[in-house]
Amino acid sequence: ISETPHFLVKYQPDLVQEAAEVCKDTEIAYSSVLKVLHLEPRGKVTIKLYGDQELLRQSSDIPVAYLFTGWNEDGESIKLYARRGGASFEAVLAHELVHQITLGISDSQPSWLAEGLAMYFVSQPLEGGNALQLEDASASDLALPVSWLEETNLIESNDGQTVRLYYAVSGMLVQFMVETHGLDRLHSVLN
Questions:
Q1: Mean pLDDT in each 10-residue stretch from start to end of the chain (191 residues)?
Q2: Cα-only R_g, the chain
Q3: Whole-prediction pTM value?
Q4: Is 87 helix (H, G, I), strand (E, B) or coil?
Q5: How much is the pLDDT for 140?
Q6: Which residues make Cβ contacts (< 8 Å) with residue 187, sequence separation at least 6?
Q7: Could you please report the per-residue DSSP string of 113-172?
Q8: Could you give the 3-state DSSP secondary structure of residue 58?
Q9: Cβ of 55: how many Cβ atoms within 10 Å?
Q10: What is the largest distance, in Å, between two alpha-carbon atoms of the chain?
Q11: If you ran DSSP here, which 8-state letter would residue 44 be given?
Q12: Interatomic CA distance for residues 173 and 179, integer angstroms
């Protein structure tokens, strides 16, 4: 177990190096999220590291069809896949921290809103923009109606392109909401 000012990191003995990297990135992620979301978690956040991505997937309460690198459910610790091949943990930590905070306020969010919040409040400060700005997707790829988000069952999808588009479109929808109606209005929706 390792501790930072805002996090408690739990890991197996074979993940000591990865845990040190996570601890280094936690406070950067925390500062980034608080700066743009203007909300913070209730107390110190627990992170559990997994050395096996399939074991991480199986540890979620909701059965998900695809492998992922981070997971959070209301009232649970943040769960992270620790073997990222040298990639920074900042973005995935920030993404899951947004879930930790927003699901702690309202755990009855539609999937597109939950993922859109996490994508928007991470993509702008840590990644430099949305999927269109970063040229990860074209405007025609992203021209999907909100009904597509509502009809797409993200947790049952095992098509990587569908999952990527779902996250990208959700993030851009939340971006539209914040830019059109403001952050205070978004906070009101969560409450």
A1: 96 94 94 94 95 91 85 90 82 94 91 94 78 86 94 89 93 94 94 88
A2: 16
A3: 0.91
A4: coil
A5: 92
A6: 38, 39
A7: HHHHHHHHHHIIIIISS-TTTTTSS-HHHH---HHHHHH--GGG---HHHHHHHHHHHHH
A8: helix
A9: 11
A10: 48
A11: P
A12: 10
